[in-house]
Amino acid sequence: MADSTEHSSKMNREEFAGYLRRLADEFEKEGDIDVPVGNKSVRLHPPDSVKRDIEVVERSSILRGSKEAIGLDVKWKKSKKSGTSKESNDADEAPDEERSGTDGDGAAAGE
């Protein structure tokens, strides 16, 4: 069973930078992390090492205009033994992920 929590919102660049800093602060500390998602917080259990994928998209369309986006995935596997996490070598099997980025309208994705 997979649980998923999603939230989308628009924010200015300063607010988005603050959101990323808060997320970075959570990853720098030892143990569990609290990921802000909308009006709540989700507790995750990352290991010392995680897999990171980043995607940058630049699209130009005559009818729809230009659009740019950043997608960031951070993934890991939870250990079956202790309930703690361990690094995933196969990111597609990772149950936990955090997605941050902006869509072309400046809205934060996966927040």
Describe this structure in words.
It comes from Halobium salinum. Residues 6-84 form the Amphi-Trp domain. Residues 29-52, 73-111 are annotated as: Disordered. This is Amphi-Trp domain-containing protein. 9% of the residues are buried. With 111 residues, the chain is mainly beta. Strand 5 and strand 6 form a beta hairpin. The protein has one helix at 13-28, and strands spanning 9-10, 33-37, 40-44, 51-59, 67-78, 85-86, 96-102, 107-108. It has one domain. The protein is globular, with a radius of gyration of 15 Å. Strands 4, 5, 6 and 7 form a 4-stranded antiparallel β-sheet that branches. The chain has a two-stranded antiparallel sheet with strand order 1-8. A two-stranded antiparallel ribbon has the order 2-3. The protein is 14% helix and 40% strand. The longest helix has 16 residues, at 13-28.
Main beta-sheet annotation: 4 strands, antiparallel
Strand content: 35-45%
How many β strands by DSSP? Answer: 8
Helix content: 10-25%
Which shape, going by the Cα principal axes?
globular
Mean pLDDT across all residues, rounded? 80
Return the structural class. Answer: mainly beta
Tell me the number of helical segments per DSSP (H or I, 4 or more residues long): 1
Runs in which pLDDT lies below 50 for 5 or more consecutive residues are 87-111
| Total number of distinct structural domains | 1
Task: Write the H/E string, N to C.
Answer: EHEEEEEEE
| N-to-C span | 21 Å
Radius of gyration: 15 Å
